[in-house]
User: Fold Glutathione transferase from Planktothrix tepida PCC 9214.
Amino acid sequence: MIELYYWPTPNGYKIPIFLEETGLDYQIIPINIGAGDQFKPEFLKIAPNNRMPAIIDFNPIDGGEPLSVFESGAILIYLAEKTGQFLPQNWRDRKTVLEWLFWQVAGLGPMAGQNHHFVQYAPEKLPYAIDRYVKETNRLYGVLNRQLEGREYIAGDYSIADMACYPWIVPFEQQQQNLDDFPHLKAWFYRIQSRPAVMRAYETGKSYSSGTTMTDEAKKILFGQSAKTLQNGE
Assistant:
C-alpha cells in the first residue's frame, strides 16, 4: 500500500498517472493546498518543503520500515525503480529519461508555474512579467516539440519523463499557448491523453477539484509564505 498525499495540480497528477499505469495499490490523502493542509506539522514530517505530492510506501524497496518520499521527480524515480517500469535499465536510455525528467522539474514546471501566477493569480497585471513567462513557456514548448519530432514519446518509449511533462501541458490555453504551433507536441499530447491510466488519474482528480475556487484567503496561503511565517506556524 502506498499513501499518496495529493491535490489535483500539475505536479500532483504525475504520481497517480504512474500508480494507475502500474496498478500499484494506493490510497489518496487529500492535501488541500488552498486551505493550508500542506503546512500541518504531520505533513511536514514527510514533506519538509511543505509541497505536495508526497508518498509513504508501506512496502519499500528494502523491505524495511515504511518510507516517505517527497518531490515529484524523486517519487517518480523511486516508484520506477521499485516496479522496474518506465525507467530503462540500459544506462544510455536511462540517462535520456532522467535528462528530460530533470528538464521538466527544473524548467517546464517552474516557468509554466510563473506563467500561471502572473497571468491568472497576481493581484495586478504586470505586462513585463506576463510577457517574460508566456514567452519562456513558448520556448520550452518549442524545445519539447523538437525532441518529439520522429518520436512517439519523449525518450523513445513511454516513461516517467512523459508522465512528468504531460500535466504541465494540459493547461496550455491558460498558458496562452496554441498546440497547433507545435505539431509533434500536439500529437504526443493527445496520445498521452488517450491512455486509460491517464484518463483514470484525471477522473479521480475531478472529485477533489470540483467546486474549488482560488479565494483571496487561498491566495494568501499559497503565495504569502516566508521563512518567518512558517516558523511562527502561520
In short: The chain is about 55% helix and 10% strand. The radius of gyration is 18 Å.
